[in-house]
Amino acid sequence: MDWFVANSVTMVNGIALGAVLFIVAIGLSLVFGTMDVLNLAHGSIALIGAYVGVAVLGGGASSALSFAAVLVAALVGLLAGVLLAVLTTSVRDHLRQAMLTLGVAMIVGDLLLMVFGGDVKTVPPPPALAGSVPFLGAPYPVYRLVLIGVGLVVGIGLWLLLEKTTIGAVVRATVNDRGMVEAIGVRTRLVLAGVFGGGAALAAVGGLIASPLMGAQPGNDNLMLVYALVIVVIGGLGSLKGAAVGALLVGEVQTVGVALLSGYASFLMFAVMAAILLIKPAGLLPSKHGHGGGH
Amino acid sequence: MSTINNEKTTVDPGTKTPAPRHAVRGGGRRRWLGLLLAVVALLVLASVPLWLSPYPVTMLSRILAFALLVVSVDLLTGYTGLPTLGQVAYFGAGAYAAGLTGIYLTTNAFVQMVVGTLVAAALALVTGIVAVRTKGFVFLMVTLAITELAHKQAEAMALTGGSNGLSGIPGISILPGGEPIALVGYLYWWVLFVFALGVALSVILVRSPMGRSMRGIRDGEERMRAIGRRTFMVKLVAFTFAGSLAGMAGTAWTAQARFVSPGDMAFALAAIALLSVVFGGAGTIWGPIVAAAIVILIRDEIGAIADGRGGMILGFVFVLAVFLLPRGIAGLSRRRAAAVGPTPIAGEGDEL
């Protein structure tokens, strides 16, 4: 119990990290689930989001500017996602998808390096959320609590969208039987571009709101990509709940792990992932549509 | 090294690979042509130190070591259908084992090669028992985990020099008790010897019944099981062989660089090794070797000229290759073969 109290702040940090990682990773999972595309440029989109924060908020933050940054990041992410959807339309083979999207990631990474340089850039949280509140007898940053809230809202919102609306029904139907959906007059390419764009917009916003915690720097694209891949494979490909569970697990391992065994956090994350995959190769909560392990 | 050019002619009639059927019949002549090309390529490569200056020779040594790593990725990804990011772990294990052997035991290059290869083989066998139970994307992630865990282990251990890497490796010697070789050309010939040995072993493997079983798993594992094959054993043997080969490549890397760092077993190297296989044409031997050379040239040489923009140029090459080379570099030759061969539907599908 003492251990629990002593580490509860770290554990809440882990939930906050898990919340932003969920927002980043969910797009990767849905795009794989619906389009069968493994988008290895996903981490680059998150890094673009972080650099949108640098560009918009670098001169000094205000709440209006922070809001604007979220909108710009979402728009840029949406465009990038639609572009990637168009690029990958005719590429069905997973290895060639990997070459295409990793090639795009290398181009984007170098472009960002040219524009923003190699130094670590910090992004301030919105001034209204920059304070702290008492939590377990110590001040705790409000921003991290807000991140947890945002993660919850995005998760519940996506669940409602996918399970309770017509749009969601069309998306789910496209996953199951693309030909049939096409036959009843839905343009599935638009559906797929929408999913890709939406997922990428979330990734860009996720990268932006994660930047006050992680900063913006070259290499964060690969870091985010690896986080997202681990989350998606732990949770089960194409599964919303799986991504949430995976993100929380990775968030906890990365924060509590760092606190307890500094230097071994990445070691821990991959060890946990390998252990889970050996017991449940399709992930903890595989999607009903059964993409787990498919190639 | 003998017949690297032949893979495209040895398509199983039973596989799904959409290769022209005449290729099986026309195999004899093309096999000799492939052998001839391989011998010529080997002779040209062997003559390089006689007419090139030391710097490009060193670069070529690096390319050969990397190319052998890429061939090991291809054996799993292209031939067995298991996309892997894990081969750099065994590459690094072989490189470290060779370096440590050089520091503490002997400078003899053969001993270093054997020790490095065996260490990598043992590691691949143990991790393979776990890894080959999965497939597809999950296999890719398990092998990524192997790479990351090996990377962290190398960074954490004092024996391997931690994150500074392993330095102070003495030069290799060829004869027992002989002097360490210092000349770049001799070092290059050793790396070329290891490369040729590794490629020859790979060609023998993929042309053996074992290689046929590997392709059978790639094209339909369930079907292989249905006819009573123990696919687990085939995959484990393939995984262990590929791991040994990567370890062998690692010993060649150490022989020429005399330095090993955890960066030699990192995600970035694993990614370009996998992409080199796709770029070159998965499931052929010579395509990925050519791709490996192009990738290293762009990353290290053109990148240095173009103000450190090697990554961006490589990215553009990969993106273009997806659309212009649907079967990779090796596909160029396959298309020509289809046009030359005595096929009743000559010309059809060749117009690309």
Automatic annotation (TrEMBL), chain A:
GO BP terms, alphabetized: amino acid transport
Gene Ontology terms, MF aspect: transmembrane transporter activity
Membrane topology: Multi-pass membrane protein
InterPro entries: ABC_transp_permease, BCAA_transport_permease
Sequence similarity: Belongs to the binding-protein-dependent transport system permease family. LivHM subfamily.
Keyword Transmembrane tagged: yes
Keyword Mitochondrion: no
Subcellular location: Cell membrane
Protein name per UniProt: Amino acid/amide ABC transporter membrane protein 1, HAAT family
Annotated TM spans: 12-33, 40-58, 64-87, 99-117, 142-162, 190-213, 225-251, 258-279
Main localization, broad class: membrane
Superkingdom of source: Bacteria
Record-level GO cellular component terms: plasma membrane
Keywords: Amino-acid transport, Cell membrane, Membrane, Transmembrane, Transmembrane helix, Transport
Automatic annotation (TrEMBL), chain B:
Predominant location category: membrane
Transmembrane segments: 32-52, 113-132, 187-206, 232-253, 265-298, 310-329
InterPro entries named in the record: ABC_transp_permease, LivM-like
UniProt-annotated location(s): Cell membrane
Renumbered residue ranges of the record's region Disordered: 1-23
Keywords, in A-Z order: Cell membrane, Membrane, Transmembrane, Transmembrane helix
Pfam families, per database record: BPD_transp_2 (PF02653)
GO molecular function, one term: branched-chain amino acid transmembrane transporter activity
GO cellular component: plasma membrane
Membrane topology: Multi-pass membrane protein
CDD domains reported for this sequence: TM_PBP1_LivM_like
Record-linked PANTHER family: ABC TRANSPORTER ATP-BINDING PROTEIN, HIGH-AFFINITY BRANCHED-CHAIN AMINO ACID TRANSPORT SYSTEM PERMEASE
Name the record gives this protein: Branched-chain amino acid transport system permease protein
Species per Swiss-Prot/TrEMBL record: Raineyella antarctica
